[in-house]
Amino acid sequence: MTNETGAVSVVFRKWRNKSGSILALFPEIAADTEGYYCESFEHIGQHSGADYRRCIARTVPAKPEEYADLKRELESYPYEYKLRVIRRAPTDLVQRRLAFTFSEGGRGDNRGK
Question: What pLDDT is attached to residue 96?
Answer without folding.
Answer: 72
